[in-house]
Amino acid sequence: MKELPHEFPNYLAKPAREALLNKGVFILNDLSRFTKSEIKELKGLGPKAFKKIQEDLWNQDISFRSEKK
C-alpha cells in the first residue's frame, strides 16, 4: 500500500518511529518544526532512516527548520 504524503513514515524501524513519536512527530510535516541537527541527535534514528526521511521531505516539498546561526 502506498503511503499518503501526510502520513507518518511507517517504513522506519520501531526505535526510529518511537524516537520521532516521543518528539511529537506524527506526520512528515511535523518535522518542519525541527532542525536537521535536532532530528539527527535522536537516539534510535540512524543515518539510513535519516536519509530516507530527508528524501521524503524533499519529495513532498517540506523542509526542516533553519539552523540558528
Architecture overview:
This protein has helices at 14-22, 36-40, 47-59. It is globular, with a radius of gyration of 11 Å. It is 39% helix and 0% strand. It has a domain at 14-59.
Q: Please, how many helices? A: 3
Shape: globular
Query: H/E series, N to C?
Result: HHH
In percent terms, what proportion of residues is strand?
A: under 5%
Number of beta-strand segments: 0
Q: What is the end-to-end distance?
A: 41 Å
**Average pLDDT:** 86
Biggest β-sheet, characterized? none
Which structural category do the helix and sheet elements fall into? Answer: mainly alpha
Return residue spans where pLDDT drops below 50 for at least 5 consecutive residues: 1-6
Tell me the Rg in angstroms: 11 Å
What is the helix content? 25-40%
Q: Secondary-structure blueprint of this entry?
A:
Elements (H helix, E strand, L loop, with lengths): L13 H9 L13 H5 L6 H13 L10
